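SEVERITY: medium
COMPONENT: batch folding queue
REPORTER: lab tech (J.R.)

DESCRIPTION
The queue accepted two submissions in a row. Attaching both inputs and their returned C-alpha cells so the on-call engineer can compare them side by side.

ATTACHMENT 1
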Amino acid sequence: SARPESAEARLDLAIAIFHADGGAAGLAEVEKIPPENRDGDYFLLRAQILDALEKPKEAEASLNQGLAREPTRPDLYFNAALFLIKHREYREASRLLEHASRRIPDSPELMLVQAINLEFRQLPEESQVVLDKIQSRWPEWYLPYLVNGIMLEIRFRSAQARPLLETAVALGAQDPAAYYYLASAITHAAPDDVESAQKTIDEALKLDTKDPYIQSLAGRIAYTRKDYPKALEHLTTAIRLWPEMVEARQTLSGVYRALGEREKSAEELKEIVRIKQANPTADQTP
C-alpha cells in the first residue's frame, strides 16, 4: 500500500499469496506488476506459479524470458532450477545454475540444487564434491546431510548414508524423508539392528501416515520382527494408498505365507505379475 510501484514488494506478496491461497491467486497478484517493471525475477516467479498450475509450456516460455532478463534473486533461481529438474531438463538446469553462480556466487541453496542436478546427470563424484564443500562451509545446516544421505542410500551405499542421515536428524531435520531413508539405511547396513529401524520408522509415521513408502517400510520392519498383525496393518494401508505398489505386495505375500494363508499369498503374487505386465517400465523407486 505504501509503495504500490515496488516490484520487489509485489513479488514477495505474490509468493506469500501463492503459498497461502494457491497458484491462481498468486498469479493474479504477480500480474499486477506493471509491464515496464517486469524484470527477470518477475518471469521466474511467474514460471514457478504456472508450473504449479500445470501449465508447463507457458511456464517454460516465462522461464526463458526470465533468463534473458538477468534475474537477481537466489530463491527464484532455486525454484527455476527445481522446475527444470522436475521435468528432467538436467542440462538446461546446469546452464541456469552456471548463469546463477556468476550472478550470485556462494549461495548455499544454489550449490545444493547443483549437487542434486549433478546426481540426476549420473555424475555422483562431482555431486559429492559440491556437497562436501557445502558441509564444510555451513556445517550447522541439516539439508546437505539429508540430501547426501538420501543419494547414498538410493545408490545402496547404506553404511555411508546412515551417519549422514543421523547427523541431519541431530541438526533438526523434522522431515519424514529423513526418518524413512535412515530406517532404510539401517535395515540394509545393520539388518540385525531391528530395534533402531523400528524406532526410526515410528518417527517417520508420526510425521506422515499417508506416505505409501513409509507404510511399506514399516510393514517390512514389522515382518522382520515377526509382528505379523502390525505388518498386515501397515502393508494394507500402503496398498490402499497405492494399489499398484509392488514392494508392499511382495512383503504382504511373505506375511500371508508366514501366517499359513497360502491362497492369499499366491493372490498377491498374481497381482504383482499383473501390475508388471500392465506397466513393465514403471519406476517405483521412492
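ATTACHMENT 2
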Amino acid sequence: MSYVIDISKVIEIFCEVDDFCKLHDEYLRAKALSEGLKPVNNAGRPSQLSSSEILTIMIFYQLSGMKNFEYYYKRLVQPCLQSYFPKLVSYNRFVELIGEHAPVMWMFTQFQTHKSERTGRYFIDSKRLPVCHNRRIKQNRVFNGIAQRGKSSTGWFYGLKINLVINDLGQIVRFLLTPGSTADNQEKVLHSLLDDLKGACYGDKGYISKLFDQFYQNGLKLVTKVRKNMKKLLYSFSDALFLRKRGVIESVNDILMTVCDIEHSRHRSPNNAFAHIFASLAAYQFLNSKPTIESQYFIAN
C-alpha cells in the first residue's frame, strides 16, 4: 500500500524544530558553564536519532491522519521516510525515546505559543482529556496520582484538562494541563493563562472570577456571560459580538480531537501521554488553515 506524504510539511516541521533544538542546546551549555557544571547526556542509552528528528516524527504523526502510532511508524516512517531519517531505530526503541523527550516537546510547544501574535482579542476554554473509560477508573494504574475525576458539559470523566487561550487568528497563545477536577476559574489557572496579556479575553460562565478587577487593572478585560442569579452587565457592541463568536475555540478543540488526535485512552506511560498531548498542540500550530475571526468586520459594524 502506498501513501501520499506531504514532504514539504515534514521539512517545514524539521527546520523549525531543529532551530529550536539548537537554541535549547546552546542555553543548556551556557547554563551549565555559568553554574560550574559539566554538561551531561540524557538518561538512558544515547540515541542514533537526534532530538530534532524524534520531535519531527512525533509531530508529523499528529498530521498524518493515522490513529495508531505503531502502524504509522512501521508502515509509513520506516519504508517511506528512511531517506530523510537514515538512522531510524526500531519501533520499541522509538517508544522509549518518546517518553524521554516529553520535556523537550513541552518546551518546543511553549516556544511555539510565544511566537503566536498578541492581537488583543483572545478566547479561553478547557477541554477534557479522559485517560480511560468510566467503567475502568478503578483499574487504571497508569495515571494514579495524576488524573482525577472531573465533570464537563458532557458528563463525568476521569483524566486531565487542557486549558487553551487562542487569539482571533486561531493560534494557540497559552496552554495549561491540569487534573480533571481543577476548576476553570481557579486563581492559579487564570494567572498561568492570562498574565501579561493585554486587550480582551472571552470565555463561558465557568470563567466568572473575582479576579476581573485585577486583570482589568493590568490591561486585560475578561468578558463572560452571566449566570441567571447575577445582574446583567452592559457590554460594548464589539465585546457583545466577540462574545457571540466564542465558539471559534470550540472549533479549535474539535480540530485537536479529530485531526491532531489529542484525545485517546491507550497510553501505557504518563510521560508518553504528555509527549503525545504536547505533540498534538505543536502539530495544530503547523496547520495551514485555522479557524479565524475577521476582527475588522466586527469592529467596523
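NOTES FROM REPORTER
The longest helix spans residues 7-34.
No errors were logged for either attachment.
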